[in-house]
Amino acid sequence: MKRGTTKRRMRGTKESMSDGGMTVMRCFLWSLLLCSLSSRAQGFIYTCGGTLKGRNGTIESPGFPYGYPNGANCTWVIVGEEGSRIQLMFLSFAIEEEYDFLSLYDGHPHPTNFRTRITGFQVPPPVTSTGNVFSLRLTSDFAVSAHGFKLNYEELHSTSCGNPGVPPKALLSGAGRFAVGDSVQYSCVPGYVLDGHATLTCITNAGNTAVWDFPAPICRGMDH
Ligand SMILES: *[C@@H]1O[C@H](CO)[C@@H](O)[C@H](O)[C@H]1NC(C)=O
Ligand SMILES: *[C@@H]1O[C@H](CO)[C@@H](O)[C@H](O)[C@H]1NC(C)=O
């Protein structure tokens, strides 16, 4: 009987949330060991996330920074105003490499909107959606977690390029509204040299979208 219900629970529907709650209750009634064993056997899924609206905000993985749960399937859908784009700025990122993932969907979380999958221990550069909806999904396996992620999101208007980000060992000046016509300057901390353009200017491209004229440069160690 139990085996037969496993697949349904794995799908992570609303039903699985209440089933999950019952599993947790049973765990308290039995023992912690039995709990983890039965959770694994039943494909326990921890669901979280939600729909976010508003000009800006913060998203943290559950339990951040003390580690996200195993068997997580959390989906956040950020919905901006019509005509805006959504920018994600990562503040912290640590996800068990190649086992747990943060997937980004340029639109609603549907396979056709899949954009990229992030894993590992490096803070990713800022990323901007093409439309007014951006979705994130955290999925973790049944062993080992890491401290998770924290990011700020912001709605960008058509005249804003958004923060171009600060690569490792780089410094950014000339910050402001990052609007069309604005420029920013990069430099590197001592011992590092800049590869790429030191000055980026926010321009309007052929598609009438505000974009930086060049990608952010990188700072390279002098002896490499
Ligand atoms: C996560 O949940 C979504 C729906 O809420 C589902 O479509 C998807 O298959 C689930 N992913 C995993 C790995 O269970
Ligand atoms: C976020 O939005 C609020 C108002 O909606 C604004 O006061 C605040 O400055 C914004 N924060 C950032 C970081 O843009």
TrEMBL record:
InterPro entries: CUB_dom (IPR000859), Sperma_CUB_dom_sf (IPR035914), Spermadhesin-Link_domain (IPR052129), Sushi/SCR/CCP_sf (IPR035976), Sushi_SCR_CCP_dom (IPR000436)
Domain named CUB: residues: 48-156
The keyword Zinc-finger belongs to this UniProt entry's keyword annotation: no
Signal peptide positions (record): 1-43
Record bears the keyword Disulfide bond: yes
Every Sushi domain range: 159-221
Record's keyword terms, sorted: Disulfide bond, Signal, Sushi
SUPFAM superfamilies found in the cross-reference section: Complement control module/SCR domain (SSF57535), Spermadhesin, CUB domain (SSF49854)
PANTHER family: CUBILIN-LIKE PROTEIN (PTHR46908), TUMOR NECROSIS FACTOR-INDUCIBLE GENE 6 PROTEIN (PTHR46908:SF4)
Name of the molecule in the record: CUB and sushi domain-containing protein 3-like
Organism of derivation: Pagothenia borchgrevinki
Top-level taxonomy: Eukaryota, Metazoa, Chordata, Craniata, Vertebrata
